[in-house]
């Protein structure tokens, strides 16, 4: 076995010997760190999804709501474990903001007997019942429409701005490709979200995939990781490198990540990702649909954000996904020292970095602002972004898109 794979496996096994529980999150000092319980979206296949609503002090009626979706193996606190986080900045610009826990995260589950049992199991290192088989396809078919319906009931808006990180953005591609109502997504921001791999096979990620699936067969990987909020263990550098760049992220953020944000990825979703990591295209769970090959059907205004040190969604892969998009209004923005930024950003650095509030978030919000229905036509034209980096922006309309790595 590759050395990094052995280190990863040893660390996971050590974590499995420790106990963890849900009480830490339930008793967190801030609502930003607790499971989403402001309301619940109910999927057609019977899942209850927790939602949290961030309300602006001065709502802008000309702006559509923003839904923020986290990635695989995490929960919605992904967006709020740092100070001056993205939901707060969006609210300051007048947006109604919703974050939610996808199935298998937070306090989510299927109401009924299993739900009662799972409330107990959640306080132990053991896996919860009924969480092994769901796939990315289930998130696309059921979770996304349920949350869109929830926000529509809350706001009366049939269209939203969708901002997703990693899987939270990846699943928007198949949703737009397969949905009978793709127009419900007014704009899409994919942060570290690609469904094409430029280099295959992704050996290290395949080894991590197998190791986590093995651990999940006996215990909860997410709750096993909770003690890591207090101390480090051998081999942690390998695991950490997939998530973030240590020098870009504050120690308190790392502690909160392991204590509040880490969840079980879901074995079914991990199995679906194996061919993607091996062959480079994201396929449906039954392997009958190649979502990567249908990117030309994605026509919504799209901003793709990449980090130069991202090991999961690297720049080359992001560029290939971006180039395949059918949208006439698309922008690729790469955060790197070469482009004038403070640091080369890793996978979660785009949201967690100490520099993100002044470098990344203004880029995202300015891009959204220019595409809101209440914005005048003159303001919808390209303008300078609120960042100290060089400006690379594509204009709305059928024209050549410009990316941030030219």
Structure write-up:
The chain is α/β, with parallel strands linked by helices and 406 residues long. The protein has one domain (3-380): 3-Layer(aba) Sandwich (Rossmann fold). 35% of the residues lie in helices and 11% in strands. The chain contains 16 helices and eight strands. It has helices at residues 3-16, 23-26, 86-92, 113-121, 136-155, 167-170, 172-178, 203-216, 221-224, 236-243, 251-261, 267-279, 315-324, 349-352, 356-359, 361-369, and strands spanning 39-42, 48-54, 66-69, 97-100, 160-165, 185-191, 302-307, 330-335. An eight-stranded mixed β-sheet has the order 1-2-4-3-5-6-7-8, with helices on both faces. A hairpin with a 5-residue loop joins strand 1 (39-42) and strand 2 (48-54). Helix 1 (3-16) runs parallel beside helix 8 and helix 8 (203-216) packs antiparallel against helix 12 (267-279). It is globular and about 50 Å long. The two termini are 39 Å apart. The model is unreliable at 11-20 and 381-403 (pLDDT under 50).
Topology:
Blueprint: H1 3-16, H2 23-26, E1 39-42, E2 48-54, E3 66-69, H3 86-92, E4 97-100, H4 113-121, H5 136-155, E5 160-165, H6 167-170, H7 172-178, E6 185-191, H8 203-216, H9 221-224, H10 236-243, H11 251-261, H12 267-279, E7 302-307, H13 315-324, E8 330-335, H14 349-352, H15 356-359, H16 361-369
Parallel strand pairs: 3-4, 3-5, 5-6, 6-7, 7-8
Antiparallel strand pairs: 1-2, 2-4
């Amino acid at each position: 076995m590759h050395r990094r794979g052995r280190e990863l496996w040893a660390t996971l096994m050590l974590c499995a010997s420790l106990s963890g529980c849900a009480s830490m999150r339930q008793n967190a000092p801030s609502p930003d760190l607790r499971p989403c319980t402001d309301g619940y979206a109910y999927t057609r296949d019977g899942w209850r999804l927790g939602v949290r609503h961030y309300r602006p002090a001065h709502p802008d009626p000309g702006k559509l709501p923003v839904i923020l979706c986290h990635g695989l193996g995490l929960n919605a606190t992904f967006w709020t474990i740092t100070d001056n986080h993205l939901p707060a900045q969006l609210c300051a610009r007048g947006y109604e903001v919703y974050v939610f826990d996808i199935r298998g995260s937070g306090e989510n589950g299927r109401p009924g007997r299993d739900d009662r049992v799972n409330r107990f199991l959640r306080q132990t290192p053991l896996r919860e019942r009924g969480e092994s088989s769901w796939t990315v396809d289930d998130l696309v078919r059921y979770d996304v429409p349920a949350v869109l319906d929830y926000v529509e009931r809350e706001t009366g808006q049939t269209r939203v701005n969708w901002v997703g990180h990693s899987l939270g953005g990846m699943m928007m591609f198949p949703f737009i490709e397969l949905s009978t109502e793709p127009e419900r997504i007014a704009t899409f921001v994919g942060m570290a979200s690609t469904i094409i791999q430029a280099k295959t096979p992704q050996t290290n990620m395949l080894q991590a995939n197998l190791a986590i699936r093995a651990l999940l067969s006996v215990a909860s990987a997410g709750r096993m990781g909770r003690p890591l909020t207090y101390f480090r263990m051998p081999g942690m550098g390998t695991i950490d490198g997939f998530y973030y760049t240590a020098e870009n992220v504050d120690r308190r953020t790392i502690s909160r990540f392991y204590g509040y944000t880490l969840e079980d990825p879901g074995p079914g979703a991990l199995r679906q990702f194996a061919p993607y990591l091996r062959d480079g295209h994201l396929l449906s769970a039954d392997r009958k649909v190649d979502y990567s090959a249908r990117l030309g059907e994605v026509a919504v205004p799209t901003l793709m954000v990449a980090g130069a040190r991202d090991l999961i969604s690297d720049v080359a892969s992001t560029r290939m996904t971006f180039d395949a998009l059918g949208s006439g209004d698309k922008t690729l923005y790469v955060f790197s020292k070469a482009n004038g930024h403070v640091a080369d950003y890793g996978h979660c650095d785009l949201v967690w970095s100490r520099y993100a509030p002044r470098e990344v978030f203004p880029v995202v919000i300015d891009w959204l602002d220019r595409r809101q229905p209440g914005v005048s036509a003159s303001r919808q034209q390209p303008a300078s972004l609120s960042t100290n980096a060089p400006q690379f922006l594509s204009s709305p309309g059928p024209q050549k898109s410009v990316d941030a790595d030219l």
